[in-house]
Design goal:
Elements: E1 4-7, H1 23-36, E2 40-42, H2 50-59, E3 68-74, H3 86-93, E4 98-104, H4 107-112, H5 118-134, E5 138-144, H6 146-152, H7 154-167, E6 171-176, H8 183-196, E7 209-214, H9 221-230, E8 235-238, H10 252-262, H11 276-286, H12 308-316, H13 342-350, H14 362-376, H15 385-397, E9 417-426, E10 435-444, E11 447-455, H16 458-470, E12 481-489, E13 500-507, E14 512-519, H17 522-543
Parallel strand pairs: 1-2, 1-8, 2-3, 3-4, 4-5, 5-6, 6-7, 7-8
Antiparallel strand pairs: 9-10, 10-11, 12-13, 13-14
Helix pairs in contact: 1-2, 1-11, 5-7, 6-7, 8-9, 9-10, 12-13, 13-14, 15-17, 16-17
Amino acid sequence: MKIEILDTTLRDGSQGEHISFSVRDKLAVSEALDELGAAWIEAGNPGSNPKDLEFFRLASSLKLQHAKLCAFGSTRKKGSPPEKDGQVKSLLAAETGAVVIFGKSWDLHVTEVLRAELDENIAMIAETVAFLKERGRTVIYDAEHFFDGWKANPPYAISTLKAAAEAGAACIVLCDTNGGSFPDFIAKGVGAARKALARFLPPSGGGIRIGIHAHNDAGMACANTVMAVEAGCTHVQGTLVGFGERCGNTALAAVIPSIEIKLKKTCLPPGKLARLSELTWKVAEAANVAVPDNMPYVGRYAFAHKAGMHADGILKLKCSFEHIEPSLVGNSRHFPMSEVGGRSAIAERVKKIDPSVTRDHPLTVLLLEKIKELEASGWQFEGADASFELLVRRLIAGTKPPRGTKPPKSVYKPLFKILAYRVVSEHPTGSSIACSHAWIKVLVDGRTEIAAAEGNGPVHALDGALRRALVHFYADLTQVRLLDYKVRVIDGNEATAAKVRVLIESTDGLRSWSTVGVSDDIIDASRAALVDSIEYKLILDGEEGGHTA
């Protein structure tokens, strides 16, 4: 049976720290999850806030091809029949074909949180499921705190599952809500649930599904989810990037490939797995968070090989240091550049610019020596791929090719030159307002341009002035913005005279890149990183079809 995926980024994910989706964000995330091929999108709680109500009103305009939207809510309140419960009625008002409701499985929560009798909780579950099913909804029942409840009072926890199944739930989801269970315990709990619900699980594969919803408080969410699938769960819940309440939820981007590639079970429509990295980054962008660099399968470092021995091994035999082919999940192999990288790694990176370069090519030897020299003086290219590529291009352009070979075409040509710049910061006495001004003069194709800008700080002002000068020649620069700016002191013993390393991450909305600058002057280090950032963008645009003037 196919493993169906329910993504709860827009509901459980929105409960993560610093996560806030606008209605437009929620629509964009829904479209991305549909592109991936998720079966269900848990899109919010219409009974909790006006924004979710507005989303469900607008969601009917979405042309989803694979996913179905679900409204989320709880069972009826104690003492209130479903038809009079405002929260239950809001689930119907959302007009989704499916609803996800949660109920209590842990007797402690029933008596101490709900302040209800155990039998009344059973009735709340059964009556709410039946009420929604009778009105044409597919009901997914989340057994909240199931594993804690099963540990404390196994018969009662199981009885809550039976109540939902007998009332007509299409799927019973076992929730490790506190996120503290270990994989072996998860497997035993899934086994107990399957045994108790055996009559609802025909051998032919029909009937209800049993699902898993894991939190990551003990760092086990992904392992628990995979173990639950091996134990018989056919429904998996999580958030694509992994963010959510407290330590987050199962990261579906890390679990889906494990299920599809390692367990040989189908989760997504054909061809969709190869778009996993792209769409994970798209959802992260909508949430205004970064995909963790070391996230399995889709992170920037997931297939990074820094050590020279590793790089050499990969180039000889891919499986020597990689558990899957990166392209299966839409990612790519990466060789961070450093003095420990070795010639094989450097040659592999340079081949993207000049395919003729080999491990023993003179340029490879020159580059390795240059990197060692620069890193000894404080430079670091490991987190600044764009600056490394520019270094390669400049060296190729300035080095005569070996006899009998032709230089690569359009490797590097300076697209602008800063002739002079000045940065001034003002801190008026008695005022909390500080202001910086920058003036810059650039040369482009024999023409000069002078521009000035004001900023919150000297680097902000310099960035604004440089862009303002260059946009007269390269209109595409209006698309570029800084994502991150980091300063590292290289030698703290020098105090305020220490050399600093500035790392800048930039984006044009379609891609992102990182550059580095080093100097004992923080403004000059920032200038170097800014110049590389803009130059890299312009070179890529030029190679992809020219600049917009």
